[in-house]
Design a protein that fits this description.
Elements lengths: L1 E6 L5 E8 L4 E7 L4 E8 L5 H5 L14 H10 L3 E8 L2 E11 L4 E9 L8 H11 L10 E7 L5 H6 L4 E14 H13 L8 E3 L1 H9 L1 H7 L4 E4 L2 E4 L5 H4 L5 E5 L8 E10 L2 E10 L5 H12 L7 E8 L6 H9 L3 E3 L5 E8 L6
Length: 356
């Protein structure tokens, strides 16, 4: 663990020394002001679960939609994820984690939290500075840092307008909810009616990698040059396919041989304090064929349902016409609802830029 110094006012870092160890790369950051407090930075492991969760009650994060309690161990098992905690004595007071994608050239800030007791004491800025200059970003090969946030509750758009970073894309949300018993009853009727799931089928990471490699399909599905999955932006590179697929990921495709009619949907789920939340990223034409996608995703979800309340967050391009999806979800018993945010924005910094 390395010690860092945090000012209670604006951070003015004067010098840094880079150290290396077998487990972590880090730096010492020294504040100019006299009013300062000393913290440590620790690489988080699976044994730290309870200490991370104690930083801030998960029920108070994202209006009860916090994914970290359920995702924590799965994310740590992934080869491209790193987690760090700010420590005051033996107490975890801050947390941040990130994923490395795009052949090791992009680091994506994925989330964090600060203890209420330490809020407003400069700890966020201290951790950010350390992560930028002394921690996981200090390695060869990294070119970019990316981040995603809700359009309404993030300074990212303002930073992009000021030229501090580059806006990559925006996407809109649509929320639907249902009770588990209602969903089970609707799908019993659906199975009895023998509705055919026309043309829609699951694909695995190999075929998904082929789609990323296909010039026609990738340009149709991902015109901005990024695939956002579970709030992580990936460049359209075949090598990203294994990173996109976790043990929770399901990918469904329709009409892959016809880019003008094709649909690609990617779902991930987690148990949150409010219930089960499903993120479904939708790319391509949001036609009536989306019904087959929803049916397949829900069928795979049934064995994992452990909550009475289920919330779908569907994500697509800005100004999407949601009518077809609204009709499908209503037919399956879902209600349109509102939750945390109406859309996301993705930005990127060049690590070699003087504006970083």
């Amino acid at each position: 663990m390395v010690k860092i110094l945090a000012s209670r006012t604006r951070q003015l870092f004067l010098r840094k020394k880079i150290f290396k160890s077998t487990k972590i790369k880090y730096c010492q950051l020294v504040s100019q002001t006299m009013d300062r407090q000393e913290y440590g930075i620790k690489r988080v492991t699976t044994e730290d679960y309870d200490r991370v969760m104690a930083i801030l009650p998960p029920a108070e994060i994202y209006h009860g939609g916090d994914y970290l309690p359920d995702y924590f161990h799965m994310l740590l098992d992934m080869p491209n994820t790193e987690m760090y905690a700010a420590v005051d004595g033996e107490k975890f007071v801050g947390f941040s984690f990130m994923s490395i994608v795009d052949d090791g050239k992009t680091i994506v800030a994925r989330g964090g939290r600060i203890s209420k007791e330490y809020s407003g004491k400069g700890l966020v800025g201290t951790m950010s500075k350390w992560l930028d200059e002394g921690g996981p970003l200090y390695r060869q090969g990294l070119l970019n840092r990316a981040a995603i946030g809700n359009k309404e509750n993030t300074p990212l758009l303002e930073h992009a307008r000021k030229g501090l970073c580059k806006e990559i894309l925006q996407q809109d949300f649509r929320y639907y909810d249902i009770r588990k018993l209602n969903l089970e009853e609707k799908f019993k009727k659906q199975r009895k009616s023998n509705q055919v799931v026309n043309h829609a089928r699951f694909i695995e990471k190999y075929e998904f990698g082929q789609i990323l490699e296909s010039r026609d399909l990738s340009q149709y599905f991902f015109p901005e040059g990024r695939a956002v999955v579970d709030d992580v932006p990936y460049k359209i590179m075949r090598s990203n396919a294994p990173l996109i697929f976790t043990e929770r990921t399901k990918v469904v495709v329709t009409h892959a041989n016809n880019p003008k009619e094709a649909i690609l949907s990617i779902s991930n789920f987690f148990k949150a304090p409010i219930g089960m939340i499903v993120n479904m990223n939708i790319y391509g034409s949001l036609s009536e064929n989306i019904k087959s996608h929803v049916i397949l995703h829900v069928q795979k979800l049934f064995p994992c349902l452990k909550s009475d309340y289920i919330l779908f967050r569907c994500i697509s391009k800005p100004d999407t016409n949601w009518e077809n999806l609204d009709n499908v979800m209503t037919e399956l018993g879902f209600r349109t609802t509102q939750f945390y945010g109406t859309g996301l924005v993705c930005v990127e910094w060049n690590l070699n830029s003087s504006k970083l």
